[in-house]
């Protein structure tokens, strides 16, 4: 007799359903009963696999960072590390705009009565900074950045990109200073602030935009 085939793990599907509900209908739709109904399973499945709704939301935090990490993996290493750094910035923004519901949960911006970020949750996504730190090391080794602490450079990039993206998601950036224009200006300013020459930074940021348009073809729609 052949061994019994194991049932597929329902957690990814439940997490996707929860993310879609949050995106389409807001926090009030995020209940165990509603998630289970949309996923075609019993409410008990939510509690069995996540312990509580807070566990399901925590899985959404992990999903958000996993998607960010997948975006970063797509950034190819080139002979211009500053252009690479700018592509990382563009990837960060793309991930946030593609997953605003997850982005807000990742950084505690969503008001969810069933969940609040713990210190461990806040530290969880830091693994996504590894690629940025490595790129900063390359920028310094190439003589483009004068800052010698790559971890500080990575945090500088992260803080600035997060602030800009948060304003964009909140709808605060409008004419004459649109999100697009502010983003391009800020990318150049970031590279210069880390020690790059202004003209060299402008060339690298422009090259990064052309690369991003070619390399980051939009993926199929998803929640």
Quick gist of this model?
With 223 residues, the chain is an all-alpha fold. The protein has helices at residues 11-25, 32-39, 43-50, 53-73, 81-98, 100-106, 119-124, 130-141, 150-169, 179-193, 198-215. The model is unreliable at 1-5 (pLDDT under 50).
Descriptive overview:
It is a single chain. The chain is mainly α. 66% of the residues lie in helices and 0% in strands. It has 11 helices and no strands. The protein starts with 10 loop residues before the first helix and ends in an 8-residue tail after the last helix.
Overall spatial form:
elongated
Instruction: Enumerate how many helices there are, as a single number.
Output: 11
Percentage beta strand: under 5%
For the record, give the distance between the C-alpha atoms at the N and C termini, rounded to a whole number: 41 Å
Give the integer mean of the pLDDT values.
89
Rg for CA atoms: 20 Å
Counting helices, strands and paired strands, the structural category is: mainly alpha
Taken in chain order, the helices and strands follow as HHHHHHHHHHH
Give unreliable regions as ranges. 1-5
Structure summary, number of beta strands: 0
